[in-house]
Amino acid sequence: MDPNDRVRGRAAGSSGSRARKTVIRGPNSALTDYLQEIGVTDHFRERRRIEIEQARLRQQQQQQEGQNPENAAETQSTNEAEETEVTADAALAADMQEEEEQAQEAGPSTSTRSTTTEAVVEVETVKEKIKVAVKGKKKKKAASDDEYSDEMNHREGLNRSSARKGGRMHNCEMCGKRFLLRGEPSGRLLCAACRRSVEKASADRAVETKRARSLVRQQPNPATKRRKIKKTEGGLLELDAQLPTLQDLCVRAIARHLDQVESFGDIGTQSMNRLNRIISKLRALDEQKLSLFMGPDRTTLTLYDCTRIEARGLQRIASECPRLESLDLQFCGRLNGATLHVLAQGLPQLNRVRLDGAFLVADEEWATFFRTMGKRLRALTAAFAGFGPVAMRALVSHCTQLEALRLVECTEFDDDSLGMLAWPITEHEEALQDAERQLRADSNGSVPPWQSLAHLRSLELLRPHKPMTNMTAKRVLREIGSHLRVLDVAGFRDVMDDFADEVATHACGLQELGMASCDAVSAAAMERVFGHMRATQTLKAHHGLTRVDLSRCYMLTDRVVQELVRLAGSSLRHLNLNSVDDNLTEYGLLALAGLMHAEDGTLQEQTLGCTALEELDVSWVRSMTDEVLGQIVPRCKHLARIDVYGCGGVTAFAPARPGLKYVGRECDTL
Q1: Most exposed: 159, 266, 289, 564, by fewest CB within 10 Å?
Q2: Is it the case that residue 230 has pLDDT exceeding 50?
Q3: Which pLDDT score, from 0 to 100, does residue 319 have?
Q4: Alpha-carbon torsion (107, 109, 111, 117), positive or negative
Q5: What is the pLDDT of residues 256-299, one digit of tens each?
Q6: Residue 474: is its pLDDT beyond 50?
Q7: How many CA atoms lie within 13 A of 334 on its CB side?
Q8: Exposed, middle or buried: residue 564 (CB in 10 Å: 0-12, 13-18, 19+)?
C-alpha cells in the first residue's frame, strides 16, 4: 500500500471523526486492564448494584408480610414479577453495555455505531414487551388467586437453582409445608423455619436449666450461709448485716469516738472486753487508752495487743489495779524482767498469769519471778518466751500449788527442763534441785525435801524447739500422770509406743488428750490406749474424754477411731483428725455415726456414735464426702462446726441444718 494513501486515509478518518464528535480514548492503565481480564467491568458493577437492590426489596417485603399476613401471597407474586422484569431488563442492559464497550475499543467505525443504535432500539422494545407481560400476569393472577396460592405454598422456599441442584421434597412434621431436602434425612423432617424454632427452644431450655442449677448452688442455706460482714471506719468495726442490738450500737458508738472518752463508767465486762478486742485489732492500744481498761476494782485484765505499750506503761498496772488476780498480756514484746518483777511484787493477789511473746525476759529473770510468786501461783501460760531449765527448777521448787502449766514454743525448754517435773535420778539433777531448794531454807537452815507438783491437773507442752526423749517423758507420766486431767504433748516426735502404754497405765483419768504430730506412735499402741481407758472407765467413775487431738498422726487407722468412739462416744465434744489421710477410710469416719465396719466393708456393729460432738476437724482427709456427712450429721445433733479444708468431696450439697457451719469448703465464697 502506498504510504501517501495511508496518510490520506488517516487524515480523512480524523476529519470524519471530528465531524461526528467522536471521543478518542487513550491507553488504559494497568489496573483497568487487570480488572477487564478478571471480568470486573461497568456492567458487572451495575449487576451487583441491582442484586443489592433486589435483596433490599425482599427484606422490605418480608417485613410487610409479618405486619399483614393476609396479603403475603399477593405481595410475593407481585415482587417476583417485578424482580423478573428488573432482572431481564438489567441483563439486557448489561449485555448491550458490554457490546458497546467492546465496539468502542475496536474503533469508532460507522458500522459499530449503527449496530449499537439498533441494539438500543431492541432493548427498548424488549422492555415494553416485558412490561406488557408483567401486566398480563397481574391480571391472570387476580383471576385465579386460589390456584396460584396453592402453587406458591407447594413451591415455597424453592427457586430455579434449587431444582437444578437436586434433592427430594418432603412435608414438614410441624407446619405441614413442603420443602426441599438434599441428602439423607437425620432426625425429624422439619423445614428450615421450624428447625430454627426447635433449636432456639432447646437452647433456651438449656440456658434456663443451667441458670436454675446455678441459683440452687449459689443460694446459701439459712443454716450454713456465712455472715455478711461490712467493713467500716477503715476496718475498725465488723458490722453484722443483721439488725444489731442496742448494746452493740452503744459499743460501736464508743469505739468510733474513743479519743473523746475519758472513762467507761459502769460498763459490763463483756462490753469492755469487746471494746478491747476492737482496739487491739487495729493496733491502737497505747498507754493513753490503757487507762480506760484499768481501775482499782478490777480483778481480771486482758490486753490482746501490747505492741505499742512501753515497759513503764505496763508497770502502771501494779499501781492502778492492786486487786488484780488474773493477768493476760498478749504480744508483750516490750515486757522485760524488771517490769515482771514489779508486777509480782505490786499485785499480792495475782495467781494466774499468761504472757505471750515475752522474749525479752531471760531464763534467770523467770526464776526470780517464780521465787517472788511462790505458792500463790496457780496457773501459768508462757508462749514464745525464753523459758528454760533454770526457770523450770524455780517453778517446781517454789510454786508447789501450781494447777495448770502451758508452755508453747519456748526456745530454751529442753529435755532437762522436762525432767524437772519428775523425781531426780542422777547426781547432776539432785545437785541442781538442792541448789534451788537452798533458797527455801528456813531460819534454822533446814532445806525442804523435793516434792512433785501434786496439785497439777493440766500439763500442756506444745511444739518444743528442742527434742524430748522418750525416757524422760515416761518418767514424768509415772510421777504426775495419775492426777492429770489435761495432757497435751503436741510435737513430741521422739516418743514411742511405750510412752502411749504409759499414758494408758498412769493417765487413765484424762479428759483432754493431745498427741498431734506424734507420728512415731503406731496405730496399735493408740488402739491399746483407748481400749485400756474403756476397761478402766467401767471400773471407776469417770467422765470420759471431751477433747482429743490426733492431727498429723498419719499412722491412724479405722480401728483407732472405732475404739475411740466406743470409749468416748457419749462425752467427746472436740475431735481433731486433721491430715490423717494415709490409712483412714470412709469406714473409719462412719464410726463417728455409730456404724462399725470391718476391713472388707461389712457392717459389724451399730452404736449411738458421738452424740455430744460439737466440733470436728477433718481437713485434708480425702475420704470425707457428702455421703459420709449424710450419716454423721443426723446422728451428731450437737455438731456446730466442721473444718473441711482440702476435702474435695464435700460440696454445696452436704447436709445442713440450723446452727451447723462448714469451714474451708471449696464451694463457699468469701
Answers
A1: 266
A2: no
A3: 93
A4: positive
A5: 777 777 787 777 778 888 888 888 887 888 888 888 888 888 99
A6: yes
A7: 13
A8: buried
CB 134 within 8 A of CB 82: yes
Q: How far apart are alpha carbons 463 and 410 in whole angstroms?
A: 8
- Give the rounded distance of the alpha carbon of 588 from its chain centre: 28
- For residues 241 and 4, give the distance between their C-alpha atoms in angstroms, rounded to a whole number: 112
Longest dimension (CA), the chain: 165
Query: CA–CA separation, 8 vs 630, rounded Å?
Result: 115
Whole-angstrom distance, CA of residue 592 vs CA of residue 557: 14
| Residue from 306, 366, 359, 362 nearest 331 by CA | 306
| Three-state secondary-structure class, residue 404 | strand
234 Cβ contact partners less than 8 Å away, ≥ 6 residues apart: none
pLDDT exceeds cutoff 70 at 460: yes
Please name the residues in contact with 182: beta carbons below 8 A apart, sequence gap of 6 or more. 165, 166, 167, 168
The more confidently predicted of residues 439 and 172 is: 172
Contact between 565 and 590 under an 8 Å Cβ cutoff? The reply is no
* pLDDT, mean over the chain: 78
Question: What is the helix (H) or strand (E) element at residue 463, kind and residue range?
Answer: none
What are 316-352's pLDDT values in tens digits?
A: 999 999 999 999 999 999 999 999 999 999 999 999 9
Q: Report residue 229's pLDDT band, with 50, 70 and 90 as the boundaries.
A: very low
Residue 396 sits at φ, ψ, to 5 deg, of: -70, -35
- For 178-192, the pLDDT digits (tens) are 888 877 777 788 888
Question: Cell numbers of 366, please?
Answer: 523467770
DSSP state of 612: T
Q: Which amino acid type is present at position 598?
A: A
The pLDDT of residue 467 is: 92
Identify which of 300, 238, 309, 239 has the alpha carbon closest to the alpha carbon of residue 273: 300
Burial level of 182, CB count in 10 A (0-12/13-18/19+)? exposed
Report which residue type is found at 40: V
The one-letter amino acid at 25: R
DSSP string, 352-406: EEEEES-TTS-HHHHHHHHHHHGGG--EEEEESS---HHHHHHHHHH-TT--EEE
Averaged pLDDT, 408-437: 82
Residue pair 301/294 in contact (Cβ under 8 Å)? The answer is yes
d(Cα 84, Cα 88) in Å, to the nearest integer? 6
